Structures are given as C-alpha cells and as structure tokens.
Amino acid sequence: MTFRIPIYSKILAIGLVVHFLTSCAETEEKQTAEPENDFKIFESLNAEATGVSFTNALTENDSLNYFTYNYIYMGGGVAAGDINNDGLIDLYFTGNQVQNKLYLNKGNLQFEDITMPAGVGGDERWYTGVTMADINGDGYLDIYCSVSGKFEPHTNQLFINNGNNTFTEKASEYGLADAGHSIQATFFDYDKDGDLDMYQANYPPTKFSSPTWVYKQYMRDPTDLQTDHLYENTGDGFVDVTDQAGLRSYNLSLSATIGDLNNDGWPDIYVSSDFNSPDLMYINNGDGSFKEVIKEATAQTAFYGMGVDIADFNNDGLLDFFQADMDAKINRRKKANMASMNADLFWSVVDAGFHYQYMHNCMQLNNGVFNTEGIPDFSNISRITGTSSTDWSWGPLFADFDNDGLKDLFISNGTRREINDNDYFNRIEEKGGIAQDSLLFWSQNIPEEKLDNFMFQNKGDYAFEKANDTWNISFKGFSNGGIYADLDNDGDLELVTNNIDDPASIFENKASERSNFLRVKFKGNSANTMGVGNRVYVTAGDTIQMQELTLTRGFQSSVAPVLYFGLNNAESIDEIRVVWTNGKEQKLTNTKVNQELIFEENNAAMPENTINPPQEERLFTQADSTVFPQFKHVENTYDDFKDQVLLPHKMSEFGPALAVGDVNNDGLEDYYVGGAKDEEAALFMQTTNGINRVDLNVFQSDKGYEDVDAVFFDADGDGFQDLYVVSGGYEFAKKPQLLNDRLYLNDQKGNFKAVANALPKLQSSGSKVYAEDFDGDGKQDLLVLGRQIPGKYPEPASSFLLKNTGTTGKPRFEIDSEMQPEAFTDLGMATAASVSDFNQDGRADIVIVGEWMPIRFFENTTNGFVEVTNDLLAEDTTGWWWSIASGDFDGDGDTDYILGNNGLNYKYKASKEEPFDIYAGDFDNNENEDIVLGYYNDGKQYPLRGRQCSSQQIPGIKQKFKDYASFSEATLDEVYSEKVLNSSLHYQVKSFASIYLENKNGKMVVHQLPRAAQLSSVTSILVEDFNKDGNLDAVLAGNLYQSEIETPRNDASRGVFLAGDGKGNFTALRPAESGIFIPGDVKNLKRYQLGDETYILAAKNSDYLQALKLN
User: Fold this and answer.
1) What percent of the chain has pLDDT over 90?
2) Which of 792, 1072, 1016 is nearest to 904 (CA)?
3) For residues 58 and 95, is the Cβ–Cβ distance under 8 A?
4) What span, in angstroms and rounded, lies between the C-alpha atoms of 938 and 930?
5) Over 461-510, what HEC string results?
6) Closest CA to 881 of 910, 845, 859, 851
7) Count of CB atoms within 10 A of residue 309's CB?
8) What percent of the chain is modeled with pLDDT above 70?
9) Predicted local distance difference test score (pLDDT) of residue 37
10) b/e 391-424 (16+ beta carbons within 10 angstroms → b)
11) Tens-place pLDDT, residues 941-992
C-alpha cells in the first residue's frame, strides 16, 4: 500500500519557509530575473554580519610545533544540525587549541554564541572531528567530538542534548570514550535494529618516513589504541564490537564514510587512509560482520587519502565516492612541493599486498555489481572530470549548489605550512638536522601559502567545471572541515568551512532565486528518529535523483539530517519514493516543488511486491566458468626504466597474442593465446564435448619469445589454417634474434611445427599482423606492424608487407618491394591497422595507427600502395592510437572507422592550443636516448617530470637549477634550450580522444566518441550488430597498466558497448545495462563461436582469459 503523507508548512518564526509556485509565469519570472552571466550564486558573509566569529587559531611553542607534533596542521571540523528543533540549522566548530563553539541560528543568517551556557566548549583537549546525531533516540541532536593531539587526555567526548539548549558530557557513561587518536566518528545503523551505532576512525601516530614493512608489522596485531572501532548501540549504551565485526585494523584513518555501495540494503563503510596504509572498503554482510574488499572493488586509490564523500553524482542510482589527496594544480607547486620519484616506495606498497596508490584525488564511479559476492566495482575517473588535482585537499562535499539536479563538488584546501617544500627541508638535511632549542624557529619559518578552495559545477556527462569565479565563492586560506546546509531555509545550500588562523567562512547561496528545490526530512518510530540511512528517489521528467541520508561527510565534519534536491526548472515532481532502512516505503506523485516534506515512518509500509521484479536480460553475461579452460597470462619481470629513465610507460608488456580459427577443419572454432617471455603459449581446440587445451612441444621450445599478436591463415595453400606469431617486447635489444616472428605450419590435424627460413629475418619488435591477399594472386599475404626499437623510444620502427611466394606445402614470404610503400620504412610506433576498402574500388587498402602517429591511409593501386593521408584528412590526427576497426556505421555504403586513443582520463592532456609533446635525442652526449615530455600549465609549456626525475636522465639539470624552486618556474625552453629541442626528434599530440572517423564524400571527418568511451585507452574494438537492430555496434575495451609511477595507470575502463543507430551516432550503455564488463589490462578482443553460442574472448596482460556470452 502507498501512503500520502502530510506536508508540513511552518511560518518564518519557527524556521521553515515553504514556497508554493502558483503559475508557470511566476516560475519563468523566477528563473530569468537576472542575466545568466551576471548572477552570482554565492556571497561571502563576514563575522560581523553573522555573529560567527570562531577562529581555529594555532599557537606554536617549544613543546608543540611541526617538528614535535607532525599532525599540528590537520585543523578542526564543523557540524550542522537543528539542536533545539526550531527548524533552523545550528553550527558547532571544533578547535585544536581554542574553545569549541556552538552557534544558535536565530534566522536571517544570524547566529548567537551559546557555547558557555550550553556547556559544550570542551577543555584542553586537541579536538578534531565532530558529528551531530540523535544518539539516544530522544528526538534531539547530540554532539560527539573526536580527540587526538600530542598530549593527554585523548578520550573522545559526547555531549548529550538535554532538550533545553544545554548539554551534558556522557561519553564514558555511554561507552563511547574512545581513547585512540581519533579523527572522526560516523553514526549509522549497521545492524538495522533501529538505533544508531558508531564507527570511529583513528589515526595512530606513525613516523612519516616509516617504510612499508613497519605498516605490515603493525597490521598483524593492532592494539586497541591503534585500530578503528565499531560500537554497537544496545539501547543501554554502546559496546565495542570491532573484533566480532571483523574490523580490527591498523590504518592511518583520516575519514570513515557510510553508504550502501552495492545496493543490497545494508550500509557499508569506506575508510580513507594516509600514507602507505591502504584504504578499507567494508561490505556489510548483513549478519553483524563485514568483509574488506578494497582491491576487488577498485583498481587504484589515493596515496595520501584524506576526506571522502559518498553520493550518486551522475544520477544512475549507484553511490559513487570522491577521495581527496594532495596533488597540486599548478606547475610551480607540483615541482617545488612534489615528493621525489620513489619507485621503491610505490612498489613496496604494491608488493606488500596493499594496493595501487597514487597521489591524486579519486572520483570513483560505481559501475555496479558483477559477481556473486556482492562486491561493487569502481573506476577512478578524476582525470576526465577535471577534479584530480586540487592541491592539499581535505574535505570533499557532493551537493547540488546551483539546484540544477546535478550534484556539484566542493573541496576544502590548504595546509598551514608547506611541509612538503623540498628546498626548505633539504636545507635542514644539509645542515645536519635541527637542534632541540631551535625547533620552534624552524617550524615557524616553514614557507606558507594561502590557497583557495575548489568549487566544481557538475556539467553532466563526466564533466566538472571550476566555478569559484563564476559562482563568486573564493577564500584563500587554510580550510579543513566544511559542511553544507540551508541555513536560511530558502531552498538552497549555504557553505561553511572551519579555517586555521582565520574566521570560519560562511557563504550565502542564492540559487533558489532562479531554480526550484525539494527539502526532505524524516520522523522515525525507532531510536533512529531522523531516518539516518534512508533513501529517497525523486523523479522529475527524465531525471531520477537518489540520495541516502548519512551525516558524516568530507573531513572531520557532519551535515544536518536533511536531504536537498535541486529541481532546476521542473514545475512539479512526478514521483518521490522513500525507502526506510527497514525496507518500508512511501510514494508521492505529482508533488509541488519548492517545499519541505517530512516523511513519517508511521505512514510507510512494506511494498506489496517484496520479490525483486525480474531484471531485463543484459545483452552480454559473463561466461560460465566451467565452459572455458582457465588460462592465465604471466608477464615476465623487466625494468624498462633502467634503459630509459623517463619512459612514459613500459614497452615490454603488450601481450598476450590472441587468435581464433578452425585449425582442424571440423567446423568448430579454436583459439590460441600467446605467452610472455619464458611462458608457454597455449592452443585450445573445440570439440562437440567442449574445449580442451592442447600442449605442443613447439610452444615449449619457443617460450623465450614474447608473443604480442597472432593470426590463423592458410600460409601454404593446403586449405588448413597455419599460425603466424608476432614477436615483440622491449627487453631484447641484446638478443635481436628473439624479435624474429615465427610461422607454424599445420599438419592438417591441428598440430603445428615451426617452419625455418619461411620468413625474412625482420628482427623487429612488432605489434600486429594481418593476413590478406593484397595483390590478388589468390594467396594470403601479410601486413606486419613494427612497434618499437628497444631502448630507443620513441624512434620510429619500420612496418612490412610480406608477399606470399610459397607453394602448396612450402610456405615462403618475402618483403614485397613492389607493393610496399617507402613510407613503411621508419613508419612509426605502429599499434594497429585496418585492412579495408576505404575507396570502394574492390582492393584491400590499409589504415595504420600508432603511438605518437597520425592516422595514415595507404591506397592499394595497380602500382602498389600509395599514401593518401593528406587527400583524406584535413587535420593533424597525431595521437596515442591503440586500435582501429572498420564498418559502415552511417549506412551510406562506404567504410567508416572507430579508433581507440589513450582517452581523456589520463594525466596527459592535449588540445590544439595546448598540445602534449615529446622530444628525443642524446641531449647530454652520453650516447643514450633521452626523453623529454612537455605539457602546458596555465598557458606555458613545462617539462612534465620534476627536477629529481629529470636529473636522473640528465645530471646537468641539477647544476643548472640549484634548487626545486628555480626548476619549478622554468619553462621547457629554459630547461633544455630551444636549440636542443629543435634539433631533436619531436612528436606532438593535439587530442587523446577516441573517435569515429566518418567517410564522407571522399574525405574523413573526425567525431569524438561519447565520453563514456573516453575513460581509458582503447586497445581493442569489435564491430558487429550485436543487438540485432540492423545497425552496427561496437564493443571497446582497453586500459594501460604500464605507466610510470608518477602517472596513475589507465585502469578505469570496464569495456563499453556503443549502440549504433545506423546514422553514425553511438549511445554508450553502462555496464549494468549492456552486461559488458571487461576489467583489467585488456590487449586483445576476439569474437568466438562455441557451438551455437557467440562469445567475446578478452586476453589481458598478467591476467586470466575472460569470456563474455552474447545472449
């Protein structure tokens, strides 16, 4: 049964103002009252106007300064909530060395300091985080303060609301006097028994320089003072159930945030951890225990994980999360304050079994659940959203600040002193350290720089735009904790931050003057009186917003128990659905906008159909694990960077090869998977009873090669499929014979033997091979692409056209000097080709792409291949191309193309105005190939890499730039000189976007693919009408796990299904919609027919072969 609940409207005196719009004309007038460019959403309010004068002032002394207490600059928090139930949201601030403050909201954004009479000022403790929650279920918000600091006491405090604007401290009485070095607590009903339990994030003091083995040792048996804690609310107080829940851990926890991450109805926990210690994602098992799944759920996390917020930012019904770190936005701060390249530290963390942890913010997109264990999958897309680098960041907050229906992102920012200033601390090290009596002096003289916070407007489609200026929200200082709240009850969200050595910031929001809203509160029957954990789904037009009520968000702070929905110009709400934590639901339809609704649990009921409705079958599903024999590609270990220090990524890990064909002519497809160096390749043959691996001695004999591609084709004209395998890799500069490709002849029974002298000795580190009768003589020739010259990145490699000159049973191939164009010599770092007829003359043409290469077209003429790139393409298409596939996507009868580039979610960015460059040459005359990568920052071009890394390649840089500060200001020309750069090998990329290339009137027209296809590099593409609608579709997969450690690896892709409309347009379906879920370092996709069923095989580097079934 569905109940309609009463709408409570209250007059201004008790703080709830409900606006009712009476006509479309009034709505239009509200929306267009002021020109868009002139309207400023925020206005900064000063302390004189608001009465909020709190300042978290720090006073350093001989016993308390940075060198005696490294955590001195972590700041304080702020909590928002209506402590006296008058309908106005009040504010509470924590101070490290100053008194905490409680401000009562008197209306009209004016506040009264009631700290002393309320009894919540605290004592001499070092207060950190604060949370307001109704802990005892009496309908009033209580205040819980976390405590840390150098000195005792460290026990947290709980201020119980007496209902009369006074409070009584009762932490010990309630069992919540946690004595760890606490950062923040979060209250939630983990066992769904109707009351609020508590998770406490603790940060045990640990030397910043501690190696990874120290963390690992502590993690074996953390003490009570080192671990986070889970406290169960028994109704008579709280009991520590950390061990029973499986949550004992040693982590430098800087935040713990709650959300139902896998949509199973149970609240989960995300713990963000500092330094080497890995983050923790605890999935609620529903039986009082949790399982930790961070490595299964994410491909990477932040290294210095700070605050976290959890919200559905893209309105797909799945909770995403944002994690702050400390990667600088501007070049100067990146280079002057950047930690030195430390491969040993990075890999020690990975090798310890922790995770891939990078120093940048993480915007973790929830892809859904694709396993039986209920583990959600997340992709970090912070680079494509433009939110990866916001300097020393603390607290992220997702909220719809402009009321347009999309959650924006605020990030508090700034550190009181620059404790990562390389030059300053190098000077200290050079002088042999600091005397005890001068610690204060050196602490107070650490450089400082006030930084602005970051406000990003959510533009939709994975795009966020910095809005500090356009929204008039700017504060340069040192902000730590922050909250949002509708402090004046006008339907939009004010912003409040707790600042070190500056008064707290309050920004008034005026978005409701031109856009609509809905405010939601709850009235529960249980001790969870305010509905913490409830979900609300709001449908207006084509948009469905989902929010889940959790209070602790960002860093050391908590928001009020209210949900806010921006509705833009919507004049009514089609449906509101409330899901209570006990499963009961309420629905309203055709509801007015611009009002507050209070949902009472009394009016909720269990849904009539408690059985989940059958889900629409996905186009693809994961193959049954029993169908395909297990095969794991195991990459050999080789350190490419010892050969070329500044390689952008490793060049030795581009396998495995994958080929599909019927090797014994039984009408059933078989497949081959190549091996890495020292690993044996494998042949899998299909029978009517299934698939079996066939072990061949020849593969064992040839396992010294690196197999990067392969093709089945009839090499000798006997009607059976032979096998050509491309040899690749970076590690064979001193053994070039291992770069020769191989031909294996089929004995007509599916057995293969190596054929000597059938191929020319190319000794080329290749990438791909394609079989086609290029010259029309009835024999299959070969196109073999050259990928690299080992040790000489990015020098161009040669590609080859091999003519089939053999006879039946006697294969032979030679370089086709007549047909092969001159441009194939030193063609480039080719990665893929399309053998297709792009000019419709009946002959197979060639399109080749590669890394640092433009798209190159070669027309097959009666006189051989002729390059016609300039005739077909009007623009420079140089990119990091990984793949290409052809098809008539617009239905006009000619051949179009989809091309996979590096994507838009990588550290490297490029545009026509600000390209990404590489320069290569022997810059310091030491007979080694040097590499310089150039990028743009604030309109100037700089070296991508820092002083430490750059000087490892060219030691003279340290002599030229004596300190990090001078290097941080130096442009590319100033570091290397224009003369040197001009004389070097130079490539330039102007776009990393994957594209659709339309063949139109004899020209090729570039169209970017949907942004969902830009989340990572695309290394393989399959084209087919998968959904049987008569139009060609495409499945794309990829990733690049080989990046150097200062560049977070490209790992966000889970594959993407592009549904074609037959007109050259594509719609990207989410994994949850299409069933395409192909994580990992994908190198090859192949279509495979198993009996009557169609599959996609995905070969991945250092991973298991994956199969997806087409339904």
Assistant:
1) 93
2) 1016
3) no
4) 26
5) CCEEEECCCCCCCCCEECEEEEEEECCCCCCCCEEEEEEECCECEEEEEC
6) 851
7) 29
8) 96
9) 65
10) bbbbbbbbbbbbbbbbbbbbbbbbbbbbbbbbbb
11) 999 999 999 999 999 999 999 999 999 999 999 999 999 999 999 999 999 9
**Which DSSP state fits 923?**
T
The alpha carbon of residue 112 and the mean position of all alpha carbons in its chain are separated, in whole angstroms, by: 42
Residues in the chain: 1111
Q: Distances from the Cα of 99 to the Cαs of 123, 128, 161, 738, in angstroms?
A: 7, 12, 19, 71
Distance CA(64)–CA(803), nearest Å, equals 78
Distance, CA of 279 to CA of 349 (rounded, Å): 12
- Nearest CA to 528 out of 189, 141, 185, 80 is that of 189
pLDDT at 3 over 60: no
Residue 18 has pLDDT above 90, yes or no: no
Phi, psi for 253 (deg, rounded to 5): -80, 120
Tokens of 94: 């924590």
Query: DSSP of 1041-1088, one letter per residue?
Result: --B-TTS--B-----EEEEE-SSS-EEEEPHHHH-----S-EEEEEEE
Question: CA 17 to CA 29: how far, in whole Å?
Answer: 20
Cis status, amide bond into 204, omega within 30 of 0: no
Q: How confident is the model at residue 613 (pLDDT cuts 50, 70, 90)?
A: low
Closest to 1010 measured CA to CA, from 954, 1067, 965, 955: 1067
User: In which element (H, E) is residue 452 found?
Assistant: strand 451-452
520-528: average pLDDT: 97
Tell me the whole-structure pTM to 2 decimals.
0.96
Which residues have CB under 8 Å from 311's CB, separation 6+? 259, 319, 320, 321, 398, 399, 407, 547
Burial class (CB in 10 A: 0-12, 13-18, 19+), 962: exposed
Reference 1020, options 711, 721, 658, 698; nearest CA is 658
CB 393 within 8 A of CB 362: no
Q: Please, where are the H alpha helices in 729-884? A: 869-872
Collapsed DSSP state (helix, strand, coil) of residue 177: coil
- Sorted by sequence, the CB contacts under 8 Å of residue 123 that are 6+ apart come out as none
**List of residues 6+ apart from 355 with CB closer than 8 A:** 278, 279, 294, 295, 298, 300, 301, 349
Q: Residue ranges of the alpha helices (H) in 581-642? A: none
Q: Identify any residues that bridge with 760 across adjacent strands, giving them in sequence order.
A: none
SS3 label, residue 831: strand
621 DSSP β-pair partners: 1109
Mean pLDDT for all residues in the chain:
94
Residue 624: HSE in the Cβ half-sphere, 13 Å Cα cutoff: 8
Is the bond into 117 cis (omega within 30 degrees of 0)? no
Tell me the C-alpha distance between 500 and 481, whole Å. 10
> Within 13 Å of residue 169, how many CA atoms lie on the same side as its CB?
11
| pLDDT value of residue 35 | 55
Give the burial class of 938: count Cβ atoms within 10 A of its Cβ; 0-12 exposed, 13-18 middle, 19 or more buried.
exposed
Model confidence over 558-589: pLDDT tens digits? 999 999 999 999 999 999 999 999 999 999 99
Q: From CA 399, how far away is CA 183, in angstroms rounded?
A: 23
In whole angstroms, what is the distance from residue 981 CA to residue 620 CA?
A: 50
DSSP 641: G
Whether 92 contacts 100, CB under 8 Å: yes
What whole-number distance in Å separates Cα of residue 647 and Cα of residue 788? Answer: 13
- Round to whole Å and give the CA distance between 573 and 590: 5
Q: Count each helix (H run) and each strand (E run) in the chain, helices first.
A: 19, 74
The secondary structure of residue 689, as a DSSP letter, is T
User: Is the separation of the CB atoms in 324 and 396 below 8 Å?
Assistant: yes
